[in-house]
Structure formats: structure tokens, C-alpha cells
Amino acid sequence: MVRDKVKEKRIKFWNAVFILLIASALILIMSAGIKKIEPLGCHINIKDVNGAEKMFENTNYEICFETNCDWLDLKAHIDREEISVKDNCININLPKGNYVLEIGNNETRINKYIEIFEKECELNETKECTTEKGCDGTQKCEYYEWGPCYKNKIICIPGSKAGCAITPCIAGTKTCNPCGTGYGPCTR
Question: How many Cβ atoms from other residues are within 10 Å of residue 148's Cβ?
Fold first, then answer.
């Protein structure tokens, strides 16, 4: 009977030691950095569009992406028409309009809405214009849009007077126009 009680105490003792060992091993494994396995999250961000803020019709653009996705599975579509993806980039050349660019794979997709604008002008083209103050000026085409109207070259100080000849024998004065871009008629 005493032997049975001693035997029972030993069994309880070793069971407790065994449970402590298992608990310690679990704590050690969890603190060793073994993490719960989660499905891979696929993140896609548009990185660059040739530095463009706006995109214009019938112009080549390269749109590049940053992602942690497997590029072998990644597909791109514009309005459901597939476009090839190469080196994390796609190339587009579209007419004026609104489009949906879809990039993704079986895990994740992103949609980017693209507006393609009509070109106002061709690069480096110039035209005459009038400034806000009513002065003659010139505009230059900058990235397919007309840039600001810059006043033509200033040649005199607005309101200043300069001598001039009405005839070879009669002297007069001429006044610089309010824009500083030229003189008015020669008067007495």
C-alpha cells in the first residue's frame, strides 16, 4: 500500500515535470521567432509615369510599378485588354479619353484611373499672346500645353521719354508704352 502511494507520487511528479518541459519548449519556440504562417500579401504601387503629371494623346508612356508580387503571374489590362508587363513596367500610347488600368495577379489587383488629355500644341512651338496687363507677349508649348504668356523683351522704362526727330529739322519726344516693349509716336 505504501509502495502504491510512493509509486503514485512519482507518477504525478514525472507528469508535472513532463508538462513543464512541454510548456517550456512551446515558450522557447514562440520566442525564437517562429511565426504563424500567413498567406503572402501582394502589394502593388505605381512608381513612375515617365515623370509626367498628365498624360497626352498619342504619346508613348512607360508606367512602372513597385511590388512584392511574383512578376511571372502579374498581368496588366487597360479597359480589359491585356498589355504585356516587362521589367515591372508597361508601355502605353492611347488616344484622348478615360481608361481603367488594372494590374494584378490571382491574389491582388489594383485599379488606376487614367485620363489621357488632348494636346494643345507640339513641344517648343511658340505663339503670340497678350499678358494679363494687356502687353504683347509670347507663349511656349511646354509638355503639350501652352505655358504662361511672357511679356516680350523690355526695351524701355514704362512712361520714360526719349528724344526723336519729327523731321530732320524738328525735334520731338516719344514715350515708352506701359509695357516697356516700345515707344509711341514722336510728338512735339
Answer: 11
3-state SS, residue 51 = coil
Residue 85 has pLDDT above 90, yes or no: no
CA angle 144, 148, 152 (to 5 degrees): 120
CA gap 64, 100 in Å, rounded = 16
Amino acid at 140: K
**Cβ of 63: how many Cβ atoms within 10 Å?**
23
Q: Which of 42, 47, 40, 41 is nearest to 88 (CA)?
A: 47
| Cα gap 22→152, rounded to integer Å | 87
Region 148-155: mean pLDDT is 91
Name residue 118's beta-bridge partners: none
Domains of the chain: 44-117 (2.60.40), 120-152 (no CATH), 154-188 (no CATH)
Q: 97-107, pLDDT tens digit by residue? A: 999 988 887 77
